Each structure stands twice: as structure tokens, then as C-alpha cells.
Amino acid sequence: MSLEDNLNKILIIDFGSQFTQLIARRIRELGVYSQIISHKKINNHILKTKNIIGIILSGGPLNVYEVKKVKFNKKILNSKVPILGICFGHQIIAKEFGGSVNKSKVREFGLANIKRIKKSILTRNFFNRNGLNNVWMSHSDEVTKIPKGFKVIASSKNSKFAAIENKSKNFYGIQFHPEVTHTHNGKKLIKNFIFSICKARRNWSSKIQKKIIINNVKNSVGTSKVICALSGGVDSSVVAKLLKNAIGNNLICIFVNTGLLRKNEEKEIVNTFKKRFKFNLIYVDAKSLFLNKLKNVSDPERKRKIIGKQFIKVFEKYSKKVKNAKFLAQGTLYPDLIESKSATGSQSSKIKSHHNVGGLPKKMKLKLVEPLKYLFKDEVRKLGLELNLPKKVIFRHPFPGPGLAIRMPGIITKDKIKILKDADEIFIKSLITNDLYDKIWQAYAALLPVKTVGVMGDNRTYEYICLLRAITSEDGMTADFFTFKKDFIQSVSNKIINSIKGINRVVYDVTSKPPSTIELE
User: Fold this and answer.
1) How many CA atoms lie less than 13 Å away from 72 in the CB half-sphere?
2) How far apart (Å, rounded) are the C-alpha atoms in residues 137 and 42?
3) How much is the average pLDDT of 503-520?
4) Active-site residue 87, yes or no?
5) 408, CA 20 to 30 Å: which among 22, 368, 469, 486?
């Protein structure tokens, strides 16, 4: 039994919208399995699968009237399941059934107020008492004529046909985006579609995921040995615990200490997995190797490549010592697949090449096991709790693969690593003590390659600047800086400067993403 083939699901057909992942997440949050697929990959075999109970057509950057660019598989509309079109999907439904779509006279980007024109099962409890609601619009085209058999549900000032329906065919179209948090009661609209219209039943929870994934691993791996690169982060930890539950001692974890981890992190990882959970864990102390390879390197891309290359070399070396290993486990997540274009292939899907996707060296000749490849990050955390992993591991802030190397612009030295580890520890411990850690998506200290003059007592100092960064985010795609009270940030600054020789100035980063990135390099 596999997730994608046997669970009843809502199929999301992706036309390149930046919000497609959000649609899938909203549905899963309601306890129903959803899957994303590119409009380019839709075929008769997929549409005929019995477990599709509803289809959502996403938004996208395309124009429905540019027929050379848009190749829409009309068989989607003959699939005999309810269909909801969002933004571009709404325009497709209108056009394919004989309506008209044209350039908008007034484009709508941002919040817009829509008014209920007709009661609908789709918009039950969506509008306020006055029949109004604020929704998020993002379009430069609009439906100018609706097809026969369709009725108007709602309108906005600039979109006469902001929501339409054909109740007999179970086709619905909305110009706005209910999946984004800016749309008030957006989740209620999605809930109405999947439960009241598609008649979905809740089939998606951590317990179900755990059972299915463990069975999948047992069936695919059998009695073979599996190697897992354990970093101590949430993804690799959940993968390791799933595999441990599935195949026991046939799992061999390799933990490579690059020397660029957070303070005492290597001890915590060994204690948790080797001593507490009795894992077969190979611990590799490669601190000196990585530091030597990074000597006098300041370019951030070179740092990343050196660390990645050395990690693979070390991992390969110790993997060869494991006899009869046939599989390599990776913590690839659903967004990793989507962003690497292997899941959807849509116009805007290839955002980055993720380090987990396609990162297996060919000469290792190991088959991949990716137990989490259909899960989002928040689902992985819930699954980790179901597997009884420590909350400290599950809710640990994201940490980059290259580690402290990219939180230390400029040349890396042993002394600078120690200074940064100490500063980061003070910052994180202060967040935990003040009950702020869980309110923040990611927080860290960085060491800037700049020295400034300071005065400590009667002595002049010339030491580094420590930068503190703390951001709030839902998925890391966009982020805003966390607003601390003055006394907290002042207290942390004092502790760092008074405790750590090498830092005489602390600054706080108040830049959002975009325009900046979360990490410095």
C-alpha cells in the first residue's frame, strides 16, 4: 500500500502557481490526502484511478487565451468528479465551457472585498452577516462572460464573476486564492469543497502515515541493510526512527561531525540515538579534515562545494565498511521534490536544486529510500511526535547543511568557530529560558568578518561583531524578523559581550525575506 496509489485523494493540477503547495497543505491540515501533479503530466491512466475524489486546478502565470503556450487536457473536465478552479483554473473552466476571458481593465493584486450574489454550498459560512468578505486577488486577466449552465456566486468591484458554479456538473471557479492566510475564512471554503462537495472522509493523520510508511519500507527493503546519513535535524531523525521501527538492526546510521555544528550538538546526537534508542551508529570525527579543506576559503559557494564534496567522500568511505548494504535513506520532503521539478514539472516549479534530490553518488550503487517524500515539514514534525522522538529534536530550528560555515562570512578559523558556537548557545538558551524559542521559526548568531573598536573597563578592544537573527515564517519561503522587547535583546547582548572574548559589539538583523535570505551566505 503506497500513499499516492491507494488513499482517496484530492488531486491538485499545477499550472505553476507560487501557492500550489499551500493548497495541498490546507487540504492535508483538514485530514484529507492531497497530491500535486503538473498539468503537463496528466494522462488518461492518472484520471481513471479510482481514488481521485476531487480535482483542484491551481493558479499560474499563464494566459488561457494564449493557446500556443497552454495545452489543457480537456479530459480532466470529463473525469466525473467535482472540480474547483482557482484563479487561472477558474479562467480555464470558464473558457473551456464557452465563456470568455480577457485582459482585466483593472488588475487586482492584494486584498479585495467580494460580495455574495447567490448562496452556494461552496461558500457556506464564508461570508459575514452582510454577505461580504476580504479575499486575496492576484490576476491580470478576468472572466468577462460565464458559460451556459453556470451562475454567479460572488463579485468584487473589478471582477464581476469572482466566483461561479455549475451545481449539476459540480464545477466551481473562484478568481481569488482561498489557500493564502490573507483570505478570511479561506480554509472554510476549501473545507466545503472537499467534505460537502467531494464527500471526502478524513484519511490523513500521523498514525496512518506511520503505519503506511513502515509497511512500505518493509516491503521495499526486505532483509537488506540500509545506510542513513544522520545529521540530528528533524528530517534525518524521523527517517532514522521510521527505519529503525521498520527494519531494526538492519539500519546503520552514519553521523559525520564536520566541526561546524552547534555547541555540543554531536554529544546530544550520540546520546539520543546510540544510547537512548540503541541505534547502530557510526560516529565519524572529521573536524580536522573539514577545517583543513576550508583553510583560507572565503567565497560562500566554494565553502558549500568543499563541504558537500568532503561530506560525500567521508560518507562513502564509511559506507563501504558496511557489508551487504543495498539502500541509502534520505530525508527528502515533498517540497524538495516539487522544487526540484521531479514532482510537477510546472513553469514555476524549479526553484532550486535541493541537496537531497539527485545527490546520490553513482558509484555507491545504492538504491534510494525516501520515506518522507510525500510529506510537508509540519507533517514530519507531527510524525516525529508519533514516533516518540524527543521534542527537542522535533522542534529544533532548521539548520543549514554547511552548518556554521555560512554563518561566518569570510575565512573560517578554529578560534572563530569557538566564538560563534559560544555566542549562538547564549542566544538560543536565552530564547528557551524566556519561552520564545517555539514562537520563532529560526534563530541563530552569526560572526561578521568585521572588527570594531570598543571599550571594556579602561582598555581598548578591537573585536568582531556578532549578528543575531530571528525570523517568523510558515514554510521558510517568506519570512519576517521577530520583534523582541528591548530588555531581552539588551540582556542577550550584554551576556555575549561579557562572556565571550572576541566579540565587543552585537547587532540585530531587521530584514525580511525577501529582499534578504534567511541565512547570510
Assistant:
1) 25
2) 27
3) 93
4) yes
5) 486
Question: Nine-digit cell at 97?
Answer: 465551457
- Establish whether 177 is a catalytic residue: yes
Q: Which of 139, 177, 198, 339 is catalytic?
A: 177
Q: Is 96 one of the catalytic residues?
A: no
User: Please, which pLDDT band fits residue 2 given cuts at 50, 70 and 90?
Assistant: low
φ/ψ of 489, rounded to 5, equals -65, -30
* Rounded CA separation 132/123 (Å): 11
Superfamily of domain 3-197: Class I glutamine amidotransferase (GATase) domain (3.40.50.880)
pTM: 0.79
Residue 21 exposed, middle or buried by CB count within 10 Å (0-12, 13-18, 19+): buried
Query: Residue 41: which of 11, 79, 85, 81 has the closest Cα?
Result: 11
Least confident of 79-83, 441-445, 482-486, 507-511: 79-83
Answer whether 516's CB lies under 8 Å from 471's CB. Answer: no
Q: For the chain, how long is the longest CA-to-CA vector?
A: 85
Count of residues for the chain? 521
For the chain, what are the domain ranges?
3-197, 206-394, 409-508
Question: Catalytic: which of 179, 265, 379, 521?
Answer: 179
* Domain 409-508: assigned CATH number: 3.30.300.10
Cα separation of 447 and 420, whole Å? Answer: 6
Catalytic residue among 87, 198, 228, 466: 87
In the numeric block, the cell 483538514 is attached to 30
Q: Which residues are CB-neighbours of 226 under 8 A, at least 6 positions away?
A: 243, 247, 250, 251, 252, 325, 326, 327, 328, 329, 369
Same fold, 3-197 and 409-508: no
Architecture of the domain made up of 206-394: 3-Layer(aba) Sandwich (3.40)
The answer to whether 426 touches 311, Cβ cutoff 8 Å, is no
Percent of the chain with pLDDT over 70: 93
Residue 358: predicted pLDDT: 38
Q: Can you read off the three cell numbers belonging to residue 474?
A: 510558515
Residues 6+ apart with CB under 8 A from 210: 242, 383, 386, 387
Give Cβ neighbours of residue 258 (< 8 Å, ≥ 6 apart): 286, 287, 290, 307, 310, 311, 403
Are the beta carbons of 134 and 97 closer than 8 angstroms? no
**Residues near 211 by beta carbon (within 8 Å), at least 6 away in sequence:** none
Q: Which pLDDT score, from 0 to 100, does residue 265 have? A: 94
C-beta separation of 385 from 391 below 8 A? yes
